[in-house]
C-alpha cells in the first residue's frame, strides 16, 4: 500500500510508509495526480500550452526524419543528409560533381546535377510547406483536441 500527501487537491508526495498527514492511495496514483471530490484520482490535466509544445516537438521530429529521408530523381535514389544536400547544391553550381546515391559516391554531369537539385528542392520544399502549415495550425488551436489532430503529412 502507498500513501500520499495531498495539498490543494493534488498529490504532492508519495510514501510507502504511513506518515502523519498522508492518506492511503492506490498503487496507480503518482505525484501530481488530482484528488477528485468523490475520493478518486486522475492524472494531471495537460495545459493547452504544454500540449502545443509537445505536438510541436513531435512534428519537428517527423519533419527532420522526412526532410533527411532519401528522395528519387530520374529513378535513382539519393541520400538526403545535410552533407549530401550540400554536395548536390555544389554539383549544380559546379556543373557536375560527386554526390551520394544509396551510400555510394556517384559523379553527376551538369544536366544530372541540375535535375537532382531540382528534385531535392521539390522534396524539401514540400515538407517545408507542410511543416509551416502544421506550425500555424498548432499556434491557432484553442483546445487540446485541435492540437492533437494536427498532422505533418
Care to give the gist of this entry?
The protein is an alpha+beta fold.
Helix vs. strand class: alpha+beta
Number of helices: 4
SSE ordering:
EEEEEHEEHEEHH
Fraction of residues in β-strands: 15-25%
Task: Report on the biggest sheet.
Answer: 3 strands, antiparallel
Strand order of the largest sheet: 2-1-3
Low-pLDDT residue intervals, each spanning 5 or more residues:
none
How are the SSEs placed, and which strands pair?
Blueprint: E1 2-7, E2 10-15, E3 22-25, E4 34-35, E5 41-42, H1 48-67, E6 71-73, E7 76-78, H2 82-93, E8 96-101, E9 104-109, H3 110-140, H4 144-148
Antiparallel strand pairs: 1-2, 1-3, 4-5, 6-7, 8-9
What does this structure look like?
By secondary structure, this protein is α+β, with helices and mostly antiparallel strands. The protein folds into 2 domains: 2-42, no CATH class; 48-148, no CATH class. It is 44% helix and 25% strand. It has 4 helices and 9 strands. The protein has helices at residues 48-67, 82-93, 110-140, 144-148, and strands at residues 2-7, 10-15, 22-25, 34-35, 41-42, 71-73, 76-78, 96-101, 104-109. Strand 1 (2-7) and strand 2 (10-15) form a beta hairpin. The radius of gyration is 26 Å and the shape is elongated.
Amino acid at each position: 500500500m502507498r500513501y500520499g500527501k495531498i495539498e490543494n487537491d493534488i498529490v504532492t508526495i508519495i510514501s510507502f510508509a504511513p506518515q502523519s498527514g498522508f492518506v492511503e492511495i492506490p498503487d496507480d496514483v503518482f505525484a501530481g495526480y488530482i484528488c477528485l471530490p468523490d475520493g478518486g484520482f486522475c492524472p494531471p490535466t495537460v495545459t493547452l500550452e504544454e500540449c502545443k509544445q509537445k505536438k510541436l516537438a513531435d512534428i519537428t521530429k517527423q519533419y527532420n526524419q522526412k526532410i533527411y529521408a532519401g528522395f528519387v530523381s530520374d529513378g535513382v535514389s539519393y541520400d538526403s543528409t545535410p552533407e549530401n544536400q550540400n554536395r548536390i547544391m555544389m554539383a549544380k553550381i559546379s556543373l557536375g560533381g560527386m554526390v551520394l546515391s544509396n551510400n555510394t559516391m556517384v559523379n553527376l554531369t551538369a544536366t544530372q546535377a541540375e535535375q537532382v537539385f531540382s528534385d531535392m528542392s521539390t522534396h524539401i520544399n514540400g515538407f517545408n510547406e507542410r511543416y509551416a502549415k502544421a506550425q500555424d495550425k498548432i499556434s491557432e488551436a484553442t483546445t487540446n483536441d485541435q492540437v492533437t489532430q494536427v498532422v505533418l503529412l
